């Protein structure tokens, strides 16, 4: 990492204390790619990307092709992609093409890594594909404010009995990163998930709509009070959240494009069938979501996977534009402060 990048990272007031963050990077506990490092040092737009969707979301080589296409979309729209993963026990923020291909070929042999699993995967020098919670943690560590994913985890159906609640929600309640997603995976309990996020103090915003999307479909029936209509709106929201030091993340829900929206009834029927199978086979915990998504895809004849890929690409486009708008906002504020300082000296 260049000295200028390290200097900038040391001044970032993110989730960790600056000295802690700087120490981890300086001691080699975390590897930041040269491209991401340079972008951060210059104040350019960077978008964090998770890696579980690569390892557990779809088969090889479709997973590699999708990962490359998503990174290309981010670059085309003016931002630098920073895919996050743990390789040989080393947390990596920004992957080379070789590392991306390695992760794709590892597939489910890479451990699905949430925040709770980070220390174990690092200590055992294992390979980990980061979920939303782990990706948010590492993004915040180095000062990346925007993170794109497909859909976040949430409160599972019948969660009031099982207490099965994704760590994505608690991470949003304690890590100041904006998560751009197509809402909550519709295999989950969306109303209870939104209630839980409210309890965690998380601002939930919807993009160009008043209704929270349901991952595969544009609408869930749940209304949201915070609406944003442009990347600039999103940038101002993120900037205000950071300046106020609220300490929480923001969830910006982007509906799947209409042309890719799956039939709500067809998807719901497939979900109910998959849920029954999961209960019959006693599939629970972090194995449940990959199983359900895979079964729903099989039952719908591949329609749900096609929709999944389409919404991830759309989220990447929107997320890159938000990251660029945020970088531009911060640059203008920095320039204005510089002008004021110069005027004060001149006076």
How would you summarize the topology of this molecule?
Layout: H1 3-10, H2 18-26, E1 31-32, H3 34-42, E2 46-49, H4 52-55, H5 62-76, E3 80-87, E4 90-93, H6 97-106, E5 111-113, H7 118-123, E6 128-130, H8 132-142, E7 146-148, H9 159-162, H10 167-172, E8 178-181, H11 190-199, E9 203-207, E10 226-228, H12 231-243, E11 250-253, H13 264-280, H14 288-299, H15 303-346
Parallel strand pairs: 1-4, 2-3, 2-7, 5-6, 7-8, 8-11, 9-10, 9-11
Antiparallel strand pairs: 3-4, 3-6
InterPro entries: Indigdn_synthA-like, PsuG
Protein name: Pseudouridine-5'-phosphate glycosidase
Subunit structure: Homotrimer.
Account of the protein in words:
With 347 residues, the chain is of the alpha/beta class. It has a single domain (30-332), classed as Indigoidine synthase domain (Indigoidine synthase fold). The chain is 51% helix and 12% strand. The protein has helices spanning 3-10, 18-26, 34-42, 52-55, 62-76, 97-106, 118-123, 132-142, 159-162, 167-172, 190-199, 231-243, 264-280, 288-299, 303-346; strands at 31-32, 46-49, 80-87, 90-93, 111-113, 128-130, 146-148, 178-181, 203-207, 226-228, 250-253. Strands 1, 2, 3, 4, 5, 6, 7, 8, 9, 10 and 11 form an eleven-stranded mixed sheet that branches. Strand 5, helix 7 (118-123) and strand 6 (128-130) form a beta-alpha-beta unit. Helix 12 crosses helix 15. The longest helix is centred in the last third of the chain and has 44 residues, at 303-346. It is globular. The model is unreliable at 10-19 (pLDDT under 50). Its cofactor is Mn(2+). This is Pseudouridine-5'-phosphate glycosidase. Keywords: Glycosidase, Hydrolase, Lyase, Manganese, Metal-binding. It comes from Manihot esculenta (Cassava). Homotrimer.
